[in-house]
Amino acid sequence: MSLAYPKPLSRKVPEFIAWLHDEPCCVSGCYVVVVHHPRGRRFGDEHNGVPLLDGLHKEGHNQGWKTFERKYRVNLRLLAVGYWVRWLDTQSGVLSLSELIQGRTGAESA
């Protein structure tokens, strides 16, 4: 007897990726970026991206991400969480992180 597990819901959020493309590079502050996925795409989640200039993105892949993070004094996984939270805050009808921390449910505004 085999156990059946439900197929996980897709966590791809193209609106978030498009939003990241409009953000400045998280290292240089310059625009025209590519999106780097600190946890990798193999996890199937698109909500772990950070904007990087193409040259910096290639540098990270070439020298290794740990070396890249030490050189530029960044934590890409932590930044990815920050970008995700900021994007969620921009979505209408979605509670902001500060509202969640304060214990609001959204029913107060209805």
Write the layout of secondary structure elements.
Blueprint: H1 14-21, E1 33-36, E2 50-53, H2 54-63, H3 65-72, H4 76-90, H5 97-101
Antiparallel strand pairs: 1-2
Helix pairs in contact: 2-3
User: How many individual domains?
Assistant: 1
Report the helical percentage: 40-55%
What fraction strand?
A: 5-15%
Low-confidence stretches: 5-10
Q: Could you tell me the radius of gyration in angstroms?
A: 17 Å
> How widely separated are the two ends?
48 Å
> What's the number of helices?
5
- Overall mean pLDDT stands at 78
Number-wise, the strands total 2
- The 3D shape can be described as globular
Across the major sheet, the strand order is 1-2
Sheet/helix structural class: mainly alpha
- Assembly type of the chains comes to single chain
Describe the structure.
This protein has one domain (14-92). It has five helices and two strands; from the N terminus they run αββαααα. It has helices at residues 14-21, 54-63, 65-72, 76-90, 97-101; strands at residues 33-36, 50-53. A two-stranded antiparallel ribbon has the order 1-2. Helix 2 packs across helix 3. The chain is globular, with a radius of gyration of 17 Å. It starts with 13 loop residues before the first helix and ends in a 9-residue tail after the last helix.
List keywords for this structure.
110 residues, mainly alpha
Summarize the structure.
This protein is mainly alpha-helical.
